[in-house]
Structures are given as C-alpha cells and as structure tokens.
C-alpha cells in the first residue's frame, strides 16, 4: 500500500509539471503572436515615420530631409515592401533603378531583395511611387522571384486617387482686388484660374506675374468646371487669346 501511494504521488507530480510546462509554452506562443500582430498592424507611413524619427535629437529627421528626392523615394518604396510583403526584407543596393517619370515627384523603382520568410534570395519588386507634400503613396506594385519567375504579389495603392484629388483641389485667394479660385493644377505644369467674369488685360498680367514662377502654363476660365473651355492662356512665352483667336509673343503683349 505504501509503495502504491508513493507511485501515485510521483505520477501526480509529473502531471502537474507537464501541465505547468504546457501553460508556459502557450503563454510564450501568445506573446510571440502578439508581437507579430503589433508589427503587421502598422502602416508603411508609420514605418517611414518611425525610421525618420529614430534619433532623439532629430538628426535622423534632418538626414532624411537632406536626402535627394530620389533617395527619399527609394526609402519610401522599401517601407512599402516591408509592410505589404515581407517584414524581413533585406534590400540589395547593386542594380537598383530609380527612374523619374514625366509627373513631378513620381518615380519608377526596381530593386532586388531577399526574404527568409519566402526562402528566396532573388526577389525583385517594381513600384511606382509619388510624393504628396511630406509623405508618399504608391500606385502599381509587383513582386516576383527571379528564380521561379513566379509573380508573388500584384497590388495597386492610392497614388492615382490622391493625384486626382490634388489636381482638382480648389483654392480661393486674391491678388490685390482680384478674387480668384484655382480649380485645377498640376505643379509645375499648369494651373487653371476661375473668375466669375473675364479679366481685363491689366488683371491678367497681375495674375500671370503672381503665378509665373510656379507654373509653365497659366490658364483662365469663367467656367467652374475646369475641364470646360478656357478663354485665355499664357504659356512658354506665348499668349493665347481664344476669344480673339490670336497668338502673341509674351514680350510683345
């Protein structure tokens, strides 16, 4: 009987130890999952922000601001890949292509990288990314493996939507006694200026002088719909008066 009791107590102790061990493993797994979730829930904008503000004295922010715009675009693109595809992405600098486009602040970037998660050291991404104010947004994004030739990710960001919103954003102001509203713009390409009635030559010149350093083409309209016909335009050293159907050199106007 005594031997049976000792055996029972020993077995009970083993069961309790095993239960405690399982509980500890479960807690560790939960902690690991929680850590992974907290990383995956941050946006790529947050990644850029935390990257740029990593130094308490602000030196990282200054360093980022001092970067050429194409280098900022590359950093933003890498943050997108980290957030959208692989948190463990390690990027290869050699062979990287950062190509400016016809749209100001927009770049096409192609870069190789590797990821342990995908067990692939020959991944490549292709992305179009554009700067809006102080932040970035991407458009078409694709990731493929150079080894298997398989496309691993195809995604579209909100670059086009943000570009359209910026182009059609209205801004009302005045120059002297001339009240006007910008109804469409794309710096530095063009601006369309709305006024309720057609402006006289002296007022057209005032607005032209106000905007000439920011835009290559300055167009005037009395239509609130910016895609309707303009009545006057000054661009590339030429003056177009559509009402009179005349074209004059700016120096002679």
Task: Decide which structural class fits the backbone.
Answer: alpha+beta
Name the helix and strand elements from N-terminus to C-terminus, one letter apiece: HHHHEEEEEEHEEEHEEEE
| Helix-residue proportion | 25-40%
Separation of termini?
119 Å
Q: How many separate helices?
A: 6
Q: What would the principal axes of the Cα set say about the shape?
A: elongated
Mean pLDDT: 82
What's the total number of strands?
A: 13
Low-confidence segments, given as residue ranges, are 1-57
- Percent strand equals 25-35%
Could you state the oligomeric state of the chains shown?
Answer: single chain
Largest sheet strand order: 7-8-9-10-11-12-13
Commentary on this structure:
There is one protein chain. This protein has 253 residues and is α+β, with helices and mostly antiparallel strands. 36% of the residues lie in helices and 32% in strands. The strands form 2 sheets. It has a 7-stranded mixed β-sheet with strand order 7-8-9-10-11-12-13. Strand 5 and strand 6 (151-156) form a beta hairpin. Helix 2 (44-52) packs across helix 4. The longest helix has 39 residues, at 2-40. The chain starts with a helix and ends with a strand.
């Amino acid at each position: 009987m005594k031997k049976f009791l000792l055996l029972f107590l020993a077995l009970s102790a083993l069961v309790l130890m095993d239960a405690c061990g399982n509980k500890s493993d479960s807690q560790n797994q939960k902690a690991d999952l929680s850590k992974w979730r907290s990383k995956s829930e941050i946006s790529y904008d947050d990644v850029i922000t935390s990257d740029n503000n990593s130094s308490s004295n602000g030196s990282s922010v200054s360093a980022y601001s001092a970067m050429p715009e194409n280098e900022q675009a590359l950093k933003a693109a890498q943050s997108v890949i980290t957030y959208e595809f692989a948190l463990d992405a390690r990027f290869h600098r050699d062979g990287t292509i950062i190509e400016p486009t016809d749209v100001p602040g927009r770049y096409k970037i192609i870069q190789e990288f590797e990821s342990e998660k995908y067990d692939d050291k020959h991944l490549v991404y292709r992305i179009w990314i554009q700067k809006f104010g102080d932040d970035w947004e991407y458009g078409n994004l694709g990731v493929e493996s150079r080894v298997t030739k398989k496309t691993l990710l195809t995604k579209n960001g909100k670059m086009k939507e943000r570009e359209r919103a910026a182009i059609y954003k209205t801004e009302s102001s005045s120059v002297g006694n001339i009240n006007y509203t910008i109804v469409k713009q794309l710096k530095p390409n063009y601006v369309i200026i709305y006024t309720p009635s057609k402006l006289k030559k002296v007022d057209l010149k005032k607005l032209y002088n106000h905007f000439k350093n920011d835009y290559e083409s300055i167009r005037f309209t009395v239509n609130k719909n910016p895609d309707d016909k303009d009545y006057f335009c000054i661009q590339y050293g030429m003056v177009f008066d559509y009402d009179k159907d005349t074209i004059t050199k700016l120096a002679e106007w």
